[in-house]
Amino acid sequence: MVVDNSYYYFQKALSPDDCKKIIDLGLSKIPENATTAGYTSKGDQPNAEPQKDKTLEELKKETGVDKEIEKKTYIRDSEVSWLDDKWLYDLIMPLIFKANKDAGWKYDLEYNESFQFTVYRPGGFYGWHSDGGGDHNAKYKRYIPGIDKLDDKGKIPTSYTNNNKMVGLVRKLSCTINLNSPGEYMGGNLKFDFGPHSQNERYHECEEIRPQGSIVVFPSFVHHQVTPVTRGTRYSLVLWALGRPFK
């Protein structure tokens, strides 16, 4: 899908006090080796090799190997926790609605997932991926205990949910917030891939959100990655806004 504006940002939209409050809250809820379902991560395969430039799906297509490739590589090295505090939605959602309007997307949005607080320590990264496809194949399905199976980690599979408000919806907009003060980390850039038919640059490192409290909003189908952190620790907050599949 081609859009006129591939992302929209607000610099220093959150105060340093708000950023510190979010970091403290997020860190307090991170369990040991916390990871995100759906991707092989360092916490799952500590002896595997990092694969920073390709998704697991791409690796499987190249090698013809399914589960074996997951034992040899990982595409994410980070820790996460999940936040549902109302004050966070009150703070962030008006900006997402403004971006949705001003960027010209004007997507129909119905619901939001929980906030994902993420920690990238030195060497941490997240390889190329998109947050959602936007079509009917990407919509959340209702998880039915006793009928639908849990994944290998004992968790609800990625495409399923036990939240009735999410059933039938897809990720339409993604939001990333930089919580760090300037100079606290190096590397760790949010990098977009706008595809081979992009009218301007195909790859773009989003330096616009380096100032603390800055926010970027973009369609969830846009491919992106977080480049390896070379020094310090990167803290970010992510949110997905949901709606009915595109028609």
Question: Which tags fit this structure?
Answer:
17% helix; single chain; 247 residues; five-stranded antiparallel β-sheet; Jelly Rolls; seven-stranded antiparallel β-sheet; alpha+beta
Element string (H = helix, E = strand): EHEHHEEEHEEEEEEEEEEEEE
The CATH superfamily appears as q2cbj1_9rhob like domain
CATH topology: Jelly Rolls
Beta-strand percentage range: 25-35%
CATH architecture: Sandwich
Counting DSSP H or I runs of 4 or more residues, the number of helices is 4
User: Ends: how far apart?
Assistant: 12 Å
Q: What is the mean pLDDT? A: 87
Q: Which percent bin holds the helix content?
A: 10-25%
Question: Based on helices, strands and strand pairing, what is the structural class?
Answer: alpha+beta
User: Which residue ranges are poorly predicted, with pLDDT under 50 across at least 5 consecutive positions?
Assistant: 36-40
Rounded Rg: 18 Å
Write a brief caption for the model.
The protein has 247 residues and is an alpha+beta fold. The chain is built from 4 helices and 18 strands. It has a single domain, classed as Sandwich (Jelly Rolls), CATH 2.60.120.
What is the strand and helix layout of this fold?
Layout: E1 8-10, H1 16-28, E2 49-50, H2 56-63, H3 67-70, E3 73-74, E4 76-77, E5 79-83, H4 86-102, E6 111-112, E7 115-120, E8 125-129, E9 141-142, E10 160-161, E11 170-178, E12 185-187, E13 190-193, E14 203-205, E15 215-219, E16 223-226, E17 229-232, E18 234-243
Parallel strand pairs: 2-3, 9-10
Antiparallel strand pairs: 1-15, 4-8, 5-7, 6-18, 7-18, 8-16, 11-15, 11-18, 12-17, 13-14, 13-16
